Hints:
The complex is a heterodimer. By secondary structure, chain A is α+β, with helices and mostly antiparallel strands. Helices cover about 30% and strands about 30% of the residues of chain A. Chain A is built from 5 helices and 5 strands, in the order αβααββαββα. Chain B has helices at about 1-15, 45-50, 90-95, 135-145, 155, 160-170, 175-185; strands at about 35-45, 65-70, 75-80, 100-110, 115-125, 130-135. The longest helix of chain B has 16 residues, at about 1-15. The termini of chain B are far apart. At the A-B interface, α1, α2, α3, β3 and α4 of A face α1, α2, β3, β5 and α6 of B.
Amino acid sequence: MRIRIKQDAAVALALLTAPFAAQAAEGTRIQVTGEIIDTWCYYSGVMGSPDAVVGSAHQACALWCSAGGIPVGLLAEDGTVYMILKVGEDTESAGGDTLLSLAAHTVEADGMLYERDGLNYLVVANVVSDMDITNKNHDDYGNVPSFSIPDPNK
Amino acid sequence: MKRLIACLALIASPLAAQDFSEGSEARSWNLYAEVPATFEAEVVDVLCALTGDCPDDCGEGKRQLGLVRAADGVLILPLKNSQPAFTGAAVELAPFCGQTVTVDGLMLDDPELGANNLYQLQTIQVSGADRIKANQWTKAWARNNPEAKGKGPWFRRDPRINGIIATEGYLGLGLDVDQAFIEENF
């Protein structure tokens, strides 16, 4: 009896720990359209509401955060955020030139989606189209943060 | 089968109930969704972990690095280091690629917004060594950008950022749009 229970426990432990040891995950090919965003300001709320930390209002800060190596995301039209790990051959997802050049742009991306622990990770094979900045929200929110544009009077 | 389910429940319950805030010395950033969290984890290259594309050095801080938490195998994505300067965590974690470390910082927990397993990294500790503050990004930037030496924060002096702003403006819509906005708002 005791041996059987030990065997059951061993099987249970193996079932639980197997996913932890796994390395490469199964991806899914997707096409998605959305805005390239600064994920720290979006998720932390440090600069304001999610609607205020995207688009032209937040462009300068999005450049700072992208150059600073903060993960860059693609905010899809349905509100899903995809953490971008690679664009084409450029694997520099922490401060790289490709993602910096796309800050706040709306793009259509084709790539592989990997889901892990509640987050979506995207390996972009191809930026199908780059629509530049389409979310012109600075009339609604001003510049966010307010110091992103240096005061010309100082 | 019932016994197997019972064993799974017994083993899984401590993981689900684990409180990673216990023992944390993380400073509050007054973020609405912050939860202090300290835990042991392996430093991994996220692209490598998901796709098998694995350089030896985890990309030298140029790829996003993750933390696979020892207690439950969950992949935590650090978004931020400890500097209030628009700076990420990959440069801080890169020296510990493949190593097991103990980190302290703040989890961002907002299921409604989709904030799951996101982290602000404040300190890193390797077994037997002192805690290291995760604040090296600006020093690394200064080493890599000697021509940008000067007064003011790094993001006002960064050549790449200034190059984009010089042509596209602070709002990204062109210099004319910037000028009209500045005249109206300053």
